[in-house]
Specification:
The protein is built from 11 helices and 8 strands. By secondary structure, it is an alpha/beta fold.
Length: 272
């Protein structure tokens, strides 16, 4: 794997007082990255080297992960406010509107952030999942994840989630386990059950996307399972100014397993 550039950490205080960390590298127009369920900002380490020659990357740690703080109670809206806070901080520092890329659950929070700030130029969403994702999980999965957490088996949470939710093979999981970011994923594993159990308010449904008039790109893997693929297509249809792009042969982990392909699609859209 090509190594990303060293990144500089900054922090911004979100609206509820929680400190949110983000890591800056590269050169060019600003691009904020919002990771999904599993891991922290190092989730983007495979993708960053293909972005950094063209954009200044600001990869955030979502609350409860990495260098970011947390709150006693988990609330979906706070995540959206966190993204908006990072966007506003980046724009204040750079003096120009920023693009925003959210992956999986991070795409949902990016949609929520787009209704909270006017500092986003363009929006890229990679496979936003159904908001009622808990209803689509294999029977008993949440209970198994919570039991693993109670037993202190954080790595077991990751393996179970990657298999059952993302659909990765054992070989693909071993590939991730061999990467430097794996310990960071383990450290954030406690956030997985709480996020899966939470169902966002109706304000964060697909219909919410219809109010977002930003020029947007929705990416979906050609091999991604139908609930995720169908929801991504529904989001693209709801956004007034969105295009849908299918990544042939790719699944829900395309940023990790085909980073050059994903970066090419993202940059082509942002630079058009």
């Amino acid at each position: 794997m090509i190594q990303p550039e060293p990144a500089t950490m900054s922090r911004v205080r979100s609206s509820d007082g929680t400190d949110i960390a983000y890591f800056t590298s590269g050169k060019g127009p600003p691009l904020v990255l919002v990771h999904g369920l599993l891991g922290d900002h190092t989730r983007w380490d495979a993708l960053r080297p293909f972005l950094e020659p063209h954009v200044t990357v600001h990869a955030m740690d979502r609350r409860g992960r990495g260098a970011s703080g947390d709150a006693p109670q988990y609330v979906f809206a706070r995540e959206c406010e966190d993204v908006a806070a990072v966007v506003d901080a980046v724009v204040e520092a750079s003096g120009t509107a920023t693009d925003l890329l959210g992956s999986s659950g991070g795409a949902l929070y990016s949609i929520g952030a787009a209704g909270r700030t006017r500092n986003i130029r363009r929006l890229v969403l990679f496979e936003p999942p159904p908001t009622a994702i808990a209803q689509l999980l294999p029977s008993g999965l949440l209970a198994r994840l919570e039991a693993l957490l109670a037993d202190g088996d954080r790595e077991g949470i990751l393996v179970e989630a990657y298999r059952a939710i993302v659909g990765l093979s054992d070989e693909e999981i071993d590939h991730l386990r061999a990467q430097p970011a794996w310990p960071n994923r383990i450290a954030a594993a406690h956030t997985v059950p709480r996020e899966l159990r939470f169902v966002p308010d109706k304000d964060f449904s697909v219909e919410h996307a219809s109010a977002i008039t930003l020029t947007a790109l929705v990416l979906v893997g050609g091999e991604t399972s139908h609930p995720y693929r169908d929801n991504a297509q529904a989001v693209a249809a709801a956004l007034p100014n969105a295009a849908l792009a299918v990544l042939d042969g790719q699944g829900h982990g395309a940023e990790m397993f085909a980073p050059e392909l994903v970066a090419g699609r993202v940059l082509a859209f942002l630079q058009a």
